[in-house]
Inverse folding.
């Protein structure tokens, strides 16, 4: 008897940030640090059993933060087909009426994983979402922001999360003078 594979989320992760120097050590070492204005790429990996399903992904950004979404990319092996895989329908809207868009919906439509009787990495496709932490009073140094992605496959849903920490730069101003005690007759002092 052949075991029937289940639809699953293989991984919800952060695969890239635009400023590598922010690292992950400021607050929670398990969560990448993001500076105001920095972009982050969230990856949603979905394993689809052989067959077809109508797929919608809802990506809920934190309600007490502000992110802008400026990229959605789907990467699928040749096993997959679907009219919207290469150009999914995308909407980004305000889910709670506070004037800030926080719910990204990705309409993939009918997606088919061609039967080949082989269970391998070709049964997984990836959805990458690129977002930016906005310069907004809601994004505060030390905030831990969790993004929740939910896959709706018609007769059920699956969810997974990824968390980032917001860090704000610590601005420092230093003024120096090249000659703190000039001699009589010196006419130039340089301040930096």
């Amino acid at each position: 008897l052949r075991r029937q594979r289940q639809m699953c989320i293989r991984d919800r992760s952060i695969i890239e940030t635009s400023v590598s120097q922010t690292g992950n050590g400021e607050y929670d070492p398990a969560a990448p640090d993001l500076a105001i204005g920095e972009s982050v790429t969230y990856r949603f990996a979905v394993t689809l059993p052989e067959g077809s399903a109508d797929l919608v992904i809802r990506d809920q950004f934190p309600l007490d933060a502000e992110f802008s979404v400026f990229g959605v990319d789907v990467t699928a092996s040749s096993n997959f087909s679907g009219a919207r895989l290469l150009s999914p329908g995308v909407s980004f809207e305000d889910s709670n009426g506070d004037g800030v868009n926080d719910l990204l919906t990705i309409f993939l439509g009918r997606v088919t994983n061609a039967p080949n009787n082989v269970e391998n990495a070709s049964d997984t496709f990836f959805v990458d979402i690129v977002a930016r932490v906005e310069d907004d009073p809601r994004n505060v140094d030390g905030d831990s922001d969790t993004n929740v992605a939910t896959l709706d496959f018609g007769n059920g849903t699956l969810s997974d999360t990824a968390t980032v920490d917001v860090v704000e730069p610590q601005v420092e101003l230093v003024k120096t003078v090249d000659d703190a005690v000039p001699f009589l007759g010196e006419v130039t002092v340089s301040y930096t």
